[in-house]
Description:
- By secondary structure, this protein is mainly β.
- It is 8% helix and 20% strand.
- It is built from one helix and two strands; from the N terminus they run αββ.
- Strands 1-2 form a two-stranded antiparallel sheet.
- β1 (38-43) and β2 (48-53) form a beta hairpin.
- The radius of gyration is 14 Å and the shape is globular.
- The mean pLDDT is 89.
Amino acid sequence: MSGSEIYLDTYVLQQDMRIRMPKSVLSNLNIEKGKTKFDIYLDSECKALVLRIHEECEEN
């Protein structure tokens, strides 16, 4: 685990593959429920999923 990771909580993977996000992500990140998209990455060495806020590319 890298030094920049902060443990928030533990949740169960739901039957329909959903994972609930801790409410603290709303106050610590600039995200909105129902609007913010995440990119999902797999780190197979650490057996970890990484969620990053999706950055929309604006074309001129």
